[in-house]
Amino acid sequence: MDKEKKYAELLPQLAAVVEGEQDMIANMANVSAILQEEFHFWWTGFYRVLDGMLVLGPFQGPMACTRIAKGKGVCGTSWMRDETIVVPDVHLFPGHIACSSVSQSEIVVPIHDSLGNVVGVLDIDSEHLATFDEVDKKWLEQVADLLKGD
Ligand code: SME
After folding, report:
1. Alpha-carbon span 4 to 67, nearest angstrom
2. Residue 105 to residues 112, 126, 130: CA-CA distances in angstroms?
3. Which residue ranges of the chain lie beneath pLDDT 70?
4. Is any atom of ligand 1 closer than 6 Å to the C-beta of 65?
5. CATH number of 3-146: 3.30.450.40, 3.40.109.10, 3.40.640.10, 3.40.50.2000?
6. Residues 37-77 pLDDT 10s
7. 121 by DSSP, 3-state: which?
8. Atom 1 of ligand 1, nearest CA residue
9. CA 88, 91, 95, 101 torsion: positive or negative?
10. What distance in angstroms lies between residue 139's CA and the mean position of ligand 1's atoms?
11. For residue 52, with 0-12 CB atoms within 10 Å meaning exposed, 13-18 middle and 19 or more buried, which class applies?
12. Whose CA is nearest to atom 3 of ligand 1?
């Protein structure tokens, strides 16, 4: 099955899982588990904005850096610019934070509250180059929308 189809099937399932649960951590935990079970990425998880930093949230995969400053790495840059960043080769991204030397490519998608403030990011890392493209961006932005906090 191509990934477009996988995402199309997964999105309603994700929506059903987060519907009716207000707690952001619980929802992030289930969303990372479901994405990981479907796609088997190297690392799938969340960072939340807490006290002016990105702090590690629920994830699936190996241990990761716990805190990332605004503007630092791919995650901090996505937060600062308030936009999705697709990185085909992490070694070519200035300031990339290598939590793992295995990671080769990455996508980071901001998550917003109902006022439009960035409250966290969805970060997915791959052990292969150029794993993510416009298809992942389109669907993962919809996944991030499901997690809108209050
Ligand atoms: N590579 C990320 C850091 C987070 S971990 O890879 C899970 C970055 O540069 O933002």
Report:
1. 32
2. 24, 5, 6
3. 149-150
4. yes
5. 3.30.450.40
6. 999 999 999 999 999 999 999 999 999 999 999 999 999 99
7. strand
8. 97
9. positive
10. 20
11. exposed
12. 97
Task: Report the predicted TM-score, pTM, of the whole model to 2 decimal places.
Answer: 0.96
Tell me how far the alpha carbon of residue 99 lies from the centroid of ligand 1, in angstroms.
Answer: 6
35 lines ligand 1 (CB under 6 A): no
Atom of ligand 1 nearest to the CA of 59: 7
Phi and psi at residue 137, in whole multiples of 5°? -60, -50
Domain boundaries, the chain: 3-146
| Cα first-last separation, the chain | 35
Ligand 1 contacts CB of residue 123 (under 6 A): yes
Contact 41/131 with Cβ under 8 angstroms? yes
Q: Work out which ligand 1 atom sits closest to the CA atom of 95.
A: 9
In whole angstroms, what separates CA 89 from the centre of its chain? Answer: 17
| Two structure tokens written together for 127 | 């052990």
* Ligand 1 pocket test, candidate residues 44, 68, 100, most atoms within 8 A of CB: 68
